[in-house]
Amino acid sequence: MITRARLLMPLAWRNLWRNPRRTIITVLVVSVGLWSILTLAVVLGALSTSSRDTTLKLMTGQGQIHAAGYRDDPTVAHRMPPPNTSLARMLHSPAVQSFAARVRVSAIVQSEYKTLPVTLAGVVPADERKISVIPSQVTIGRYLDGAGDNVIVLGRDLAERLKTRVGKRVVVMTQNANGQLAERAFRVAGLFAGSRRAEDEFIFTGIQTAQAFTGIGNDISEISFETTSDAALPGLITALHQIAPNLDVQSWKELAPLPYAVSAYVDLILVIWLGIAVSLVTSGIVNTQLMAVFERTREFGLLQALGMRPRLVLVEVAMESMWLNTLGIAVGLAAAIASVRAFPNGLELGFLARGAEIFGGSHLLHLHINLGDFVLYSLIIWVLGVAATLWPARRASKVSPVEAMSRT
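Below the sequence we write its predicted structure tokens.
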């Protein structure tokens, strides 16, 4: 059987090019289908990663700890004391890669020209640099020097809307611990450039300055933390719940449901498109092979009259399909790899960037080839493509030599 297969392989290859137009069309159908699946997988994977990383590295982290009721009413009325001994020990354990305590309250910022709602965040700059990208995104001026720094850092877009700049003063108003309005003037020390949402929402000062401003003593609003791996996160959340049962401990999946939904539904979207692409590819192959069988009825009848068994006719037609699918997959893989490598510095979304920001993503998607996905999807297309030709191949093997030779 192996010897016969070796004889049939070159015969099947030559048969493909007896009708080069049909062969090229079939190869294009397979390659375009595979290319669309692979490129969609890369782009959706980049969007999911961007959405997740942008959210986590902005202010969220992989999880947060709040006082009960803070997430429903983010004011100083729902604050918590600094971590006690057991909680501090857990936060400094090997299970936690980094953490940052913050004062985070709703506020209003006022310039000479405009008044806008914002979120005031009092931070420890050294800790914030370990968990957030904002300290590295300051493009004009400087970031905070320490926990007691009494200047303020604004988003670039927010500064433009306020018509202010580095060195100017703005007034920040928020509710203090007594429920009264607290008001203070801050000098703008720096401007950061991140996503439009982050630029418009957050303003930063030192945590001690924010505590004094709101009159909450040493209390804090939240603790953001990161684990050593995603697999360790559920166990850490459980441990923190046990250590601090009166506090609200949540993972990023609950804190940022939209980016989590994007990440969760990427695989579903790929499965749906894989089904569509496979249906198109297999229908194209079946139609092409059926036409080939009808056109070559006399040929198959002659081969059987000369002694070729029906089983070998089936094998020959299946081998032709194998060649077609292999060629199509090779072209599709090459096209997908070339498409990804055409954007070595990332894919700029342009006018679609605002839509990506709605999902928490960045305006720039960094595309990466996942070898496992490429092999898996190529194998699925190849197997199903070959399987789709079994019906035409079986029809070819059932051709009667006498009936076929009698046709004109």
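Residues 224 and 297 are 72 Å apart (CA to CA).
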